[in-house]
Design goal:
Elements: H1 3-29, E1 35-39, E2 43-50, H2 63-86, H3 93-116, E3 119-126, E4 132-136, H4 138-163, H5 167-170
Antiparallel strand pairs: 1-2, 2-3, 3-4
Helix pairs in contact: 1-3, 2-3, 3-4
Length: 179
């Protein structure tokens, strides 16, 4: 098993079951619409549902449209994830982990959409001046962490490539670079 596959599977195995278990815990233990304060004035466990996407986009769209749209969008995302994964080098652990987290998150939210027709959200953060970040869940967190890891990997790779001497810089004037 390659290092990238180990990390990819670790990402999926860490995010998907944790998402499913926490959503079950919330939906069976907290009344819909309620919240439990964890850190006074800052962090709450809630029980809300989101029929839309991030920030409730498409929440007011007709249910059949939403179901087909999100099924199609998630299917496309899964195909893209496996396409990106296939193009990774066997030792690319960080990108493997990132793609595994993104896949686990996408599957977790898809599972909710198929099972209950909407996504169960339960993490609520109140920021400053009464502003609250929209409620989210473990799947959303896994997707965001995966994307951030991919961006960091891209930045690190770009920086390393810029710092490495190119073939023309390393050759003497008038001498072609060595093959």
């Amino acid at each position: 098993m390659t290092p990238k596959l180990k990390m990819f599977l670790a990402g999926v195995i860490a995010s998907l079951p944790l998402d499913v278990v926490t959503k079950y815990w919330v939906s069976s233990g907290i009344v819909y619409g309620d919240r439990v304060e964890v850190i006074e004035g800052f962090f709450y466990i809630t029980h809300v549902r989101n029929p839309g996407a991030a920030f409730s986009m498409f929440a007011d769209a007709p249910e059949p449209f939403r179901q087909w749209f999100f099924l199609g969008a998630t299917s496309l995302a899964i195909v893209l994830i496996f396409s990106f994964y296939r193009n990774l080098t066997p030792r690319d652990r960080l990108s493997g982990l990132a793609l595994g987290l993104i896949l686990g998150g996408a599957l977790g939210n898809l599972y909710d959409r198929v099972r209950v027709g909407e996504v169960i959200d339960f993490l609520h953060v109140r920021l400053w001046a009464g502003y609250s970040w929209p409620d989210f869940n473990v799947a959303d967190s896994a997707i965001v962490i995966g994307v951030v890891l991919l961006i960091l990997e891209l930045i690190a790779t770009e920086s390393a490539e810029r710092g490495a001497p190119s073939g023309s810089e390393s050759s003497e004037a008038g001498t072609p670079p060595a093959a």
